[in-house]
Amino acid sequence: MKQAAEDTLRRIEQSASRRYLPIIGREKGRLLGEIVAKHKPRRVLEVGTLVGYSTIQMGKTMGSDAEIVTIEVDRDEAEVARENIRASGIRPHVTVITGDALDIIPKLAGTFDLVFLDAAKHQYLAYLRLVEDRLGAGAVVVADNAGVSSRSMRDYLEYVRGSGRYSSEYIPVGWDGVEVSVKQ
Length: 184
Ligand SMILES: C[S@@+](CC[C@H](N)C(=O)[O-])C[C@H]1O[C@@H](n2cnc3c(N)ncnc32)[C@H](O)[C@@H]1O
Fold this sequence. Notes:
Mean pLDDT: 97
Largest sheet: 7 strands, mixed
Helix content: 40-55%
Structural class: alpha/beta
Number of helices: 7
Number of strands: 7
Radius of gyration: 15 Å
Distance between the termini: 36 Å
Bound molecules: S-adenosylmethionine
Low-confidence stretches: none
């Protein structure tokens, strides 16, 4: 099963070298996997599935009692993601929802232990505010592109760093980085 996940990730990486496919890539994927392994979330919300690369990176370190809900606005990418996730054989139950996260998040039931934000950078704060009351103390929010897109997500970064609701740190990865914020 682990081999199937690795094979699927390699296949996606290869297609990313042929056409523009803004996946988080191997280095950030490893970091994301480490964050998931450390915090052991039972329920993950991902915003911005694309073809499922980051979903598989998170899911390969999670158990069969865990769940990932992931949202993708592009219907075709969401369908490819479903196929990739199926092929990867990862253990958690994964639901790929097609739609705009701004419409979908308010309709989701239940709480989340980890949120991975990787959709429209200027909407990160809106995504977070929509899910925030369903995050308990210790829940982790990982925001991609906090280096290269720091201007587009300035309101988000100011909020997680300055509101007192999170303990937040920037982790550089290559020429970019992720903001990791733990709910207080
Ligand atoms: C950078 S890609 C995600 C990459 C993916 N997380 C990975 O690393 O494999 C961003 C994705 O967010 C999607 N997206 C953008 N705005 C969105 C929104 N409002 N709701 C849901 N998905 C959105 C785009 O269609 C795109 O597929």
